[in-house]
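G., before I forget:
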Amino acid sequence: MTLQRGETLLVTLGIPVVLLIFFTLVPVLPTGTRHRVDFLAPGILALAVMSTAMVSLGIATAFERSYGVLKRLGATPLGRPVLLTAKIVSVILVEITQVVVLVGVALALGWRPHASAGLAVIAVLLATVAFAGVGLAMAGALRAEVTLAVANGVYVILLLIGGVIFPLHELGGLARFARLLPTAALSDALHATLGSGSNATEGWVVLALWAVAAPVVAAVTFKWE
Amino acid sequence: MPAVEVDRLVVRYGNLVAVDGLSFDADPGEVVALLGPNGAGKTTTVETLEGFRRADGGSVRVLDLDPWSDHTRLTARVGVLLQRGGIYPIMNTERAVRLFAAYYENPLPADELIDLVGLRSVARTPYKRLSGGEQQRLALALAIIGRPRVVFLDEPTAGVDPAGRIAVRNIVAGLRNDGVCVIITSHELDEVQRLADRVVIIDHGRVVAAGRQGEIQGGSEELRFAAQPGLETGELSVRLGTHVSEGPPGEYLIPVPPVPALVAELTAWLAEHDLQLGDLRAGRQRLEDVFLRLTAPVVDEPTDEVSALAPSSSKQQGRGGTARR
């Protein structure tokens, strides 16, 4: 189901791929790395995770709630735990697709990661939990149309201040705030593990906190109908 | 043992009491309709039976299990038709049927089911492009796909075209033959008269009448007459030894069997007061009359309505009860 919707495909794959190619080829960004793609690839991966786990999952779930699908499924032997598991699996499958495509494109653009892939995977999983929590918290409390608007709005804002295309140190005073958000934390962690090898302790801590807090909030506030 | 038991159920939304001490039960192979105006508490009752809501008071049992705490044990044996929605708008009929079939251990064959509800010609049509009646028939198919022992149909014929109504009737009849317990909610009297073995009339979260259709009506033999508006019903009530009420102005109801002595006494009283009789009708009321009278907004004669309809609501409602006056 997930990849059948055109808009889902656009937000999870189309936008990240286009951003990656465009900003790699067009020198308008102050990336601060020798090759622009070295900065962009980890950031765009962070964006991709956010688009799947928060935007796509949140919006889909919100509409399922408003269509009564969640309620109806709750009356079948499928049950809520299985439903939740299915959603997690589908998010992870989409993310794997994204990683394969984006890493492929980035490599083709000349990206040479100093890979610490294991740590990067852990960062992505932590972030997935955090973003899924945020997305489900929205989906479970807001009307579907509101979730659609908020999720997309947050997506754009975090795209700008999440260390995805603009390095955080270019943001000035905003950077302090931005670093508390999960996108910046993830892009920090990915930049550190895949690129510079720099220290991203703060990013890891922020990521872990979001990964705990967001699902708890979602679980407490979620209304099934 | 009844398949469904509701015993003094209370459900509240905040301060609003949606269901207020409701009791009824239903046996396997029995079709019971919950009939009542919008907001009477029908859907709330059914959703409690489906395990979507928790009872605030009293108890509900489905197949001798608690629908709230034993929800996961019941889902395989209970079929549900929600009042609306429940299906992905872009999913077509056939996929929806196959998807739901996958949730059950021993589902009805998908193709057979699609034919049964008459959706073969729209098997590839997305849910959102089906007509209201087709959507309802698909939802009905999904309600019975898992060979349930109890089926809850919330307004199954609302917005359904005549062909769809016949399909619903046939399916319900089939379920009854298979020994399935079917609970239907409706505010449509005609459908209820066609579908249900027993009727439970609900208003303001309470049972106002319950029984087999014949019982409800048969227990409500009455005498109606028309005369000039504003008669002294109090005086007449004393004279006849029963309660006389004026419904619409100029129309009077004496809710007891119209034995000849009663008719004689009534006409004598009218003669003494030199009142002309406009109309005199004796006999059973139609279910519609029962329904409208029992659930009518209390406007004209509030005290009369209440005392006439609900002398002791908690005692008489529930199992095997007949209509009350």
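Chain A has a mean pLDDT of 85. Residues 79 and 122 of chain A are 29 Å apart (CA to CA).

More on Monday.
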